[in-house]
Amino acid sequence: MDIQPGDILTMKKNHPCGAKEMLVIRSGMDFRLRCVNCGREFMVPRNKIEKSIKTVSRKENTDV
């Protein structure tokens, strides 16, 4: 699965604050995510996060 920093992940389950969207800060063997609603940052192993992703939204880079 190709996930890059800056992508917005929509998860299958809610974060405790009620949001389902997470911003990818770092990707690799672990993901560093930030909740879009409350701003909390946390790290999750890749194999765990890939199972719980519903959709990936990517903003296209228009810098020329």
CATH fold category name:
SH3 type barrels
Oligomer: single chain
CATH class: Mainly Beta
Find the count of extended strands (DSSP E, 2+ residues): 5
Fraction in beta strands: 35-45%
Task: Throw out a few tags for this protein.
mainly beta, 64 residues, 5 strands, 9% helix, SH3 type barrels, 5-stranded antiparallel beta sheet
Describe the structure.
The protein has one domain (8-57): SH3 type barrels. With 64 residues, the protein is mainly beta. The chain contains 1 helix and 5 strands; from the N terminus they run ββββαβ.
Give the gist of this structure.
This protein has one helix spanning 46-51, and strands at residues 8-11, 21-26, 30-35, 41-45, 53-57. With 64 residues, it is mainly β.
